[in-house]
User: Fold Transcription termination factor 1, mitochondrial from Zoarces viviparus.
Amino acid sequence: MATVAGVRALLSFHRSVTLQRSFGHIPAQSTSTFLPRGLCSAPAKSSEPKPPVNTENVSLLENLNLMGVDVKMARQRQPGVLRKAFTNEQGLARFLQDKGASRRVIASIISRYPRAITRSIEHLEQRWALWRDVFKTDGEIVGILDRSPESFFRSSDNGNLEKNIAFLTSLGLNTKDLHRLLSTAPRTFSNSLELNRQMVEFLEDTCAELGGTNPEQFPKSIISRNLYILIRSTKRVKTNIDILRASLKLSDSEMLALLQGPGAEILDLSNEYLKNNFNRLQERMVSLGCRKADIKKLILSYPMVLYIGTDTLSSKLDCLLRGGVTMKQILEKPKVLDYSTENITGRLGELQRMGYDFQKNGINILDSSRKRFDAKIERLSASPETK
DNA sequence: GTAACCGGGATCTGCCATTTGT
DNA sequence: ACAAATGGCAGATCCCGGTTAC
Assistant:
């Protein structure tokens, strides 16, 4: 580990030399390497190694402009990078280009996460290889970088990345899980191993406290149901568990069942949002004459109801109730709330025109894919008397 | 055939605050 | 003091279809 710093120092020196040689046609890059030397001799202050440049590296700026980078954005995000004497923007650009990134993608990546240009080629190659252990193609990785450059570039610790992959694998996540995790929540892999470990331990402890039989498998099941869990703080997840338990007055076994089931999906909501959504839902249901037990049943069977924003949920309920569906039916089939308000409204209209009777036929028809719904409608209109 | 159950795909980053390192 | 590294936060669904069971 102690070697890392030394290697890095060597790399940055090595880079400044090789850059000039390998990019023979780039005068901007070489002036950039000369600039600090001139400044260094002028003040001639203390020892010697650091030119106290408070000014931006002009030739670097020129380079970035030529590459189509949004320099204003870069400056706003990481001003320090623009003052560095030695950077590797050309190397990075070539590297990414080789991987299939377009000019505009490269420019966009640097604009949004300027520190990317401080990574050496060796470092990039290593990191890319590690990502390729999880992804099948370079194209997939380029896609993620375009989406979230920070996830790839924020950490310079490849050893940590490697350990994370090993750690996650040791939890029982297979290649497919890992792929899903890295493409969905790439930040997970830039977390320190320690941070990820803390969350996993917290989940294991929680499971054990609730009387779960095998706490070792618990984190895996949570993670595969909620891919964002590892980029949340343990504080947030813990608070959400407490909120759910207190609001619904859950026993240990009920809580455990909820978490091992669909409840995992809502653990990463912000605490206030969860609380607020619960309170508003409760108010609404009480005003509709529901009992506490109904509320509990709804949330246990369909926790995603708490994920839906209060305004959205409210309008969905409005349009279902207005369309002749009862709250009792919704409680039996909460998945209808999964669908967008527009979708629900449209289907209610279609069904109404056909004289569909929810009291007689139930509301199953609302919980189906577009294809299945249309097929059903077709059958109904072919033989109108059946339903 | 179709209801019931279930899991998965798309996507979820970009900013700020704090700590660490030199 | 500065930049780098790392942690944490707010934001806020919808849809599809395979499989199973009747």
